[in-house]
Amino acid sequence: MELVVLTVPDCPNAPAMxxxxxQVLPRDAAPVDVRVITSEEEATQMGxxxxxxxxxxxxxxxxxxxxxxxxxxxxxRNADGRTSGAPSIxxxxxxxxxxxxxx
Length: 103
Fold this sequence. Notes:
Shape: globular
Strand order of the largest sheet: 2-1-4
Distance between the termini: 13 Å
Low-confidence stretches: none
Helix content: 25-40%
Radius of gyration: 13 Å
Number of helices: 3
Order of helices and strands: EHEHEEEEEH
Number of strands: 7
């Protein structure tokens, strides 16, 4: 499974995304590739929907099908309805579990 985090330079929410992934990934998992996106064009090429974006095998599990590409900050809605700049720990755990089952 390929995991990539797309982020704009100095994104204050990227460290939280990476920490949450670290907490839910097995110790022997391949490292998460972090790519700093520096332009709207690059965001379009990579499929970025705001910073930070998690791609699992090239797909953003948190973006609705009609989500626009965005070279900007991103807001996530957690299970309790609160907004945050990064998914909760449970959210990447859930999408990684589903991706491992091929869903």
